[in-house]
Structure formats: C-alpha cells, structure tokens
Design brief:
This protein is mostly helical and about 170 residues long. It contains six helices and four strands; from the N terminus they run ααααββαββα. The strands form two sheets. The protein has a two-stranded antiparallel ribbon with strand order 1-2. It has a two-stranded antiparallel sheet with strand order 3-4. The structure holds zinc ion (2 copies). One zinc ion (ZN) binds near residues 83, 91 and 93.
Length: about 170
Amino acid sequence: MVGVHLAVALVNLESTDSWLPETLEEALQEHQIRRPHVTEPASEQIRAWTKRMRPVFEASSKADRCQSVNALLADGAGSVYLTTHDDLRPHLHFAPDGRDLQSRVKAVTAGGLAIFTMEAEGERLSVCALSSCRTAFVDTSRNGRRAYCSARCANTDAVRRHRRRPR
Ligand SMILES: [Zn+2]
Ligand SMILES: [Zn+2]
C-alpha cells in the first residue's frame, strides 16, 4: 500500500500551491522512501509524473483507470522482483534499489497503483465528489462506497444540495 498512499499524497500536494522540494521530501519521508533527498530537477520530474497520476483517480470507468495505470507502468516500472530488505515482509520492488530518487518514486507508485487496482477490482481510487474539492483518496471503507474525501466535504455538499432544492 505504500505506493498507493504515496500516490494520493503526491497528487494532493500537486494540486495545492505548496509543491516545493522541501514539502516533497517530507511526503517521501513519511512514506518510507529511502534516501529521499530531493534536488530541484528531481522535484520537477516527480511533479510531471504526479500530473500523470491524477487521471488514475479521476477515471470514470475501470477500463480508463487500467489504461492510465498501464501508461505509468510502461514508463515507471522496470524489472519486478521480491525483496525482504530491512526485515520487512516479502514485497515487490519495481526498480533496482540503486536507481535515482525519481525513478524509484515512479516505480513504487506505478507498481503500487497497479497491484491495488487489481485487488480492488478497478475501484476504490477516487476524487472527492465535491466539485470545489477534488481531493484524491483511496477508499478503504468496508463497502467501498465513499464519495467524499472527508466528512466536512460530505456536509458541505449536503448543505449545498439542500439550498438548491426548490421550495
Ligand atoms: Zn521496499
Ligand atoms: Zn473533499
């Protein structure tokens, strides 16, 4: 799930005005990316990559979502192998450990989104239904029917719909 949560964090960071090498580095650190030192060119590359990840969350059909993930896999994932580094349980890596930061970020997000999409049967990756929000999120609820990024957005939308109702 590391790759999916990182993808969500990056997509949401990208859509605010706070994308900086420092804020990016913080996000990478939070998601256990090793050697997360961010240079200006790495920041630019990861930002361009992040813009390509939003369509995975915005996709209106499973087929579209798969297509968006496939495009990421094609450019971001190299050879796939199992690893148990740092005493972690066996998990897949999608790029050799020695690769530069941007390559490893691309690999872990592309691979993570692909595995998640498979396991969630093409669902559970979404953006907030409140049109002024559009925050990306991963739906880990039991029934997988979450429409909003937060209770606050759900309430705001409910109030708006109520006001719009003719009396
Ligand atoms: Zn790992
Ligand atoms: Zn929202």
